[in-house]
């Protein structure tokens, strides 16, 4: 989609640049008024496309920032430290269960 919008912008800008003449505009002739109107319309289209592309870039940037924030908030579960802690907790739980089991046998 970005490529299509970019191509559309290039086409509009290319046609607008090809219509620009170096001669000053003579308002007296109707042909010059038509050329001026056409250049105004083309520049308006280019401006609108530029606004659309800018808003797309802004939305993509906001989404990027939100994704980065979500990645930072997720805890790293499978780190080497967490494995050691999990192993220690499992051993402690087994030892606690065994002590409780021995205590019940003695009663």
UniProtKB/TrEMBL annotation:
GO MF: glucagon receptor binding; hormone activity
Record flagged with keyword Signal: yes
Domain of life: Eukaryota
Signal sequence extent: 1-22
Entry keyword Ribonucleoprotein: no
Cross-referenced InterPro entries: GIP (IPR039078)
Any one cellular-component term (Gene Ontology): extracellular space
Gene3D superfamilies xrefs: 6.10.250.590
Keywords, comma-separated and alphabetical: Hormone, Signal
Name used for this protein in its record: Gastric inhibitory polypeptide
Organism for this UniProt entry: Cirrhinus molitorella (mud carp)
Organism classification: Eukaryota, Metazoa, Chordata, Craniata, Vertebrata
């Amino acid at each position: 989609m970005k490529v299509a919008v970019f191509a559309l912008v290039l086409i509009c800008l290319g046609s607008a640049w090809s219509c620009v003449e170096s001669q000053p505009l003579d308002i007296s002739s109707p042909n010059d008024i038509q050329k001026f109107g056409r250049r105004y319309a083309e520049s308006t289209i280019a401006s609108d496309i530029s606004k659309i592309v800018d808003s797309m870039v802004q939305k993509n940037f906001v989404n990027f920032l939100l994704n980065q924030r979500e990645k930072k908030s997720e805890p790293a579960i499978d780190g080497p430290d967490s494995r050691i802690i999990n192993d220690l907790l499992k051993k402690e739980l087994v030892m606690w269960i065994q002590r409780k089991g021995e205590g019940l046998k003695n009663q």
